Amino acid sequence: MTRTSADPAPILVAGRWERSPRVLDVLDPAHPGQLAGRTYQATPEQLEAATVAAEAALPIMRALPAYERGRILRETARLVLERRDELARSITLEAGKPIRDATTEVERTALAFRIGAEEAERITGETIPLDLNAASRGRWGITRRFPIGPVAAISPFNLPLGLAVHKLAPAIAAGCPIVLKPPSKAPLALLALAGILVEAGVPEGALSVLPMDRELGDRMVGDDRFRLLTFTGSPAVGWAMKARAGRKKVVLELGGNAAVIVDSTADIDRAVLRCLQGGYKYAGQLCISVQRMYVHASVWDTFMERFVAGAQELVTGDPMDPATDLGPMVDPAAVSRTQRWVDEAVAAGGQLVFGGRGEGAWFPPSLLTDVPKEQAICTEEAFAPIVVAAPFEDFDAVLAEVNDSRFGLQAGLFTNDLAHAWKAFEELQVGGVIVNDVPTYRIDHMPYGGVKDSGLGREGLRWAIEDMTEVRILVLA
Hints:
By secondary structure, this protein is α/β, with parallel strands linked by helices. It contains 15 helices and 22 strands. The protein is about 40% helix and about 20% strand. A hairpin with a 7-residue loop joins strand 3 and strand 4 (about 35-40). It is globular.
């Protein structure tokens, strides 16, 4: 399909680039009211065509040998790196992410595709001796994983490529057709990635990338022709989707209010540096952003003095400037909610150490202390450049404090006490404990997900492939 730079970007419907009557304006968060670009919202007929094509593509995808699935994923990784600057610029324009972080996101997207290629080539089964009683003498079982079927996927705005790749790469590795709903606020880089996947050789019909309104997205969620739903986003939306998902398997990667503990034995300089990055990177719009920070009383004054000094050096400004640390939040509504929660915390007795006053789409890095723990800024997911700090003295008590949350995604612990590290691993009710780093740490081949309201199942290439495949046993008598 020919297109000029002024035209909306077409959407991918079962391997074909199409338009629709429903134009979607994508706004630039750094310049409210200005367009980052335009695309289309899919029609019900286009979703139906994508769903039918995904069903028809299943035998083709299932028959692809491991080397071919690996080749597609490796070629995708290569092309992503080749177009790194173009993709990073798109992310910055539509999501407001500082260009330095957007470039890192593109590079990690390529890494995830490369890991997906490797995992595609080592999906294995096992042999099982079945002769556990006389009637089963001479019998053996052989297991093999088969693709579960068409996948419905929904990804969020904050890592437009970096979170979508954890649905796309394992689906292709496993041999599953996939229909992906990109974030309406940031679909353009993902549509460009869809073009790369088509160029890399994904079979026609096996991939659709369809921006949709909520009503059409709900239709996809409830459609039993999809055998798995994978969603990354807010807890309220995710759990409501699970209730409507019917018989399909569901994987949810939801929110959190991640905590970090700075123990008395911690390397304070490293802890300060990483907590600044973990709390304020991408304006805190990460589900594992540092939100709650517990610092041992013996190092509280030293840590806080260095943390405050470090925060003053953070650069807030134009996300296209490589020197920028914090860009805008995704929209003014997010700033308004953040402002309300900060004001409520201060009214309840919390102390504002720095920041705390947003304007337009911008909110500065902010630090609060002495906040009553029932305040929303402590109990909910802030998804903003807000850190709430508190001192502690007893390690067992601070572990209980971290666990006193309806969320449980990841937690961080800075310590040089091995016993404390093991105790945190045993007792913290989270999907991951990160020792001597912030909960914001993630690399793409590790299992990633949460407990409680933070989600269901695990992402990370190998673990996602397990959810996207079903075990079948062959019994030999």
